[in-house]
Amino acid sequence: MAASMQLLTRQLQPSLRCPSCGSGPQASAGAAAPPFAAFQGNRQPRRSGQVLQKWREYASCRSIGGKAVSLQSSNAARGPVGQRTGAARAVASEGDSRPIYQGMYGPWSVDEADEREVFLYRAGIVTSAACFTLGALAAFVPSDSPLSPALRSLLDPLAVVGAGSLGLSLVLVHMYVTPIKRFMQALWAVGVFGSVLTALNFAAPEGTPLAVYVAEHRGAVWAVGPLFASLTGLAFKEGLCYGKLEAALMFLVIPATLLGHLAGADSNVELGLLAVWTALYVVFASRKFTQAVKDDIGDKSVFMFNDLSEAEKEKRLAALEQQRGGL
């Protein structure tokens, strides 16, 4: 009977280990008895309940970052590799208050570096929106108003700060398709380059701010347009990912305003489009801080996976397939 139980234990022991960390119940110090030794006759009858409890713990065990956690997943989280697994969560058993999310390529959590990055990304959007709003205000203030000279003198500094803030956000934005992100950054760089050339070679000799020069010379839109095209791309990303109406409308209003000015639209139409653009930008920026930090990160496991070498990627995919096959 004892020999039969030992044979059964050898056959079952591999499947009774944790599929993630590979751990199993430990035998007592100096003992070589198998895990089911408690059931072999009356050798250790008092420990049978403890052994069963150990197996229950290991059966539900998963290892995340070296910590044993209990996963709360749905069937969607068990899909094949290459499909988004949703936001299944795991709560660390060692008192870690940060939630852990189940991503496409494994679990991830938001750390302090992520929080700083998201804060700077949102701060860049808010700063650029504030600069744009103050600059646009100059178009609605009568030229004989005492505020007009002050606003006019601030246009170039606002353009510099606003463009720089937008560039910061374009560097920090999380996008799964890297070529699209690089294209948006390239548009920003081309727009900044064109703006600087126009300001130095045309606006400065006339003693006018760049924004005023563009307003008076429609063709200058070609020089500064790529800068706003990058903002249009960012609005499209935000509208598509989060379903934000104001961002989706910005995607339409920004090119309509620039193309309308380039085509010689009526000044009242241009002012109306500019007012709508400004209002949408303010709403868009103000709502960024109402989102959870994880929303602006996306599926962090995708970015972590992309940072791996090809060999490490293959190992990771194989481990995921093996783990999900055992669920």
UniProtKB/TrEMBL annotation:
- Which keywords fit this entry according to its UniProt record? Membrane, Transmembrane, Transmembrane helix
The protein here is known as: Uncharacterized protein
Q: Which residues cross the membrane?
A: 119-142, 154-174, 186-204, 219-236, 248-265, 271-290
Superkingdom to which the source organism belongs: Eukaryota
